[in-house]
């Protein structure tokens, strides 16, 4: 009798922590949001996803079609090298800006991207002397010609037209963006 009791006690000690851990894991899984659970569990087959295989196997049992996989990123994940048709924004910033008479009228200050992250405009610093008294104007990308060989941007505007152009005003960033910018340094325009 003493031997059976000690075996039962030993079994309870060995099984107890394992069952407790399993119960804790189950509670953790139950407390996860439904959204996470939906992402980790495969979707149940739908009526459209089930087809009859009678013609192939002679059986009338339904089978599930393999779900079509859609990849949100159709393009390569990494770019290894800049091509001759591309230019880095960091290279473009600071390029001299000239007009058709080859007069230096300013320099590239920034680029404007749309919601799809494509450049739609260029911010140019014009006028002033050594950066003092200069103002920022913005032009659509269709109004500029980039010459990589000479590191210049050419415009079809006179100095007077550019000096009379309205100043560009950047949109004030949201509170979270403002904190990030403050930690990165002051905004120059």
UniProtKB/TrEMBL annotation:
Signal peptide annotation: 1-23
Region (Disordered): 23-70, 164-189
Composition bias, Polar residues: 39-61
SUPFAM superfamilies: PRC-barrel domain
Pfam families: PRC (PF05239)
Biased composition (Low complexity): 23-34
Keyword ATP-binding attributed: no
Protein name: PRC-barrel domain-containing protein
């Amino acid at each position: 009798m003493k031997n059976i009791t000690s075996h039962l006690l030993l079994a309870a000690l060995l099984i107890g922590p394992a069952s407790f851990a399993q119960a804790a894991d189950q509670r953790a899984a139950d407390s996860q949001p439904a959204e996470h659970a939906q992402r980790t569990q495969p979707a149940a087959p739908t009526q459209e996803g089930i087809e009859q295989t009678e013609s192939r196997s002679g059986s009338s049992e339904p089978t599930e079609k393999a779900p079509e996989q859609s990849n949100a990123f159709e393009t390569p994940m990494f770019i290894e090298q800049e091509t001759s048709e591309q230019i880095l924004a960091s290279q473009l910033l600071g390029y001299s800006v000239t007009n058709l008479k080859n007069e230096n009228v300013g320099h590239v200050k920034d680029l404007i991207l749309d919601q799809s992250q494509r450049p739609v405009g260029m911010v140019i610093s014009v006028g002033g002397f050594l950066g003092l008294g200069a103002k920022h104007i913005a032009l659509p990308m269709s109004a500029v010609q980039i010459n990589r060989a000479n590191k210049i941007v050419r415009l079809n505007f006179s100095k007077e037209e550019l000096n009379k152009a309205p100043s560009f005003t950047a949109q004030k960033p949201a509170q979270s963006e403002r904190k990030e910018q403050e930690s990165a340094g002051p905004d120059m325009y």
